[in-house]
Design a protein that fits this description.
It comes from Vibrio quintilis. By secondary structure, the protein is an all-alpha fold. The chain has five helices and no strands.
Length: 107
């Protein structure tokens, strides 16, 4: 039963991607649908990073001793200013490492 569910869900994911990306399919979404779908990437990324930043130990951690919070704020600022993904990733990871190992090690 579980294998059947996995196969069915894999088919749903594949065909939903294929439907929008295949050049031979005559469907072209309208401007409203394209605008609506443009929010799916940021929504999925927020679902991924928000629990990591605000709940690293499965409980809410909202104070200034949270190295995840500082690194996320820095990453947002750098991404906004530079628009460079590689620089944003490396610099925010470096700041997190420094904060986590040396500045706030006992937290």
């Amino acid at each position: 039963m579980i294998m059947a569910e996995i196969i069915i869900l894999a088919g749903v994911v594949f065909f939903s991607r294929y439907f929008f990306l295949a050049p031979g399919v005559p469907f072209r979404p309208g401007a409203g649908l394209q605008r609506f779908l443009s929010y799916s990437g940021p929504a999925v990324l927020t679902v991924i990073w928000a629990p990591i930043v605000f709940m690293p130990d499965q409980k809410l951690w909202m104070n200034w001793h949270n190295p995840y919070l500082w690194s996320a704020l820095l990453a947002g600022l750098i991404a906004w200013k530079t628009k460079n993904v590689l620089f944003t990733t490396i610099s925010s990871m470096t700041v997190f490492l420094v904060l986590h190992l040396w500045v706030l090690p006992d937290v």
